[in-house]
Amino acid sequence: MKLLPRYSEEPDVNLTPMIDVVFLLLLFFMISTSFIRETSLKVDLPQATGEPLAEQVDPIDIVIQANGDVLINNSPLIVNNRDNFQNALRAAVGDIADPHIIISADSAAEYQQIVTAMDVAQQLGYSRLTLATRQTQNENK
Known about the structure:
Blueprint: H1 16-32, E1 47-48, E2 60-64, E3 70-72, E4 75-76, H2 82-93, E5 100-105, H3 111-123, E6 128-131, E7 134-135
Parallel strand pairs: 1-7, 2-5, 5-6
Antiparallel strand pairs: 2-3, 3-4
Helix pairs in contact: 2-3
């Protein structure tokens, strides 16, 4: 009886597990990367334990300092009243439909100024507001 010779298959490398590991590493580094937004003004931000947001494209910065000074995109308000605030915010936004507005208030700033900033933005029809905080440092690290 004549038997056919057995041909052994060529070994091949399965790349699927390696690709899975690379994608998991990529996902891990994307999630664990922190985007820190630095500003040149000294504002002592309140602390929060939430996760930081990814930086948005061209946000409008409203900075409320401890002494009551208000700056919109680093331009100070001459007279700090509601009408001037509305006009300055409208001028800073320009023709952007719904801008991302970041309110950075000093932890010693009056709460009324923060509420006024949020109220003026809402009256102008801007709904994407963010209150900037700094992340608390864990002492157990």
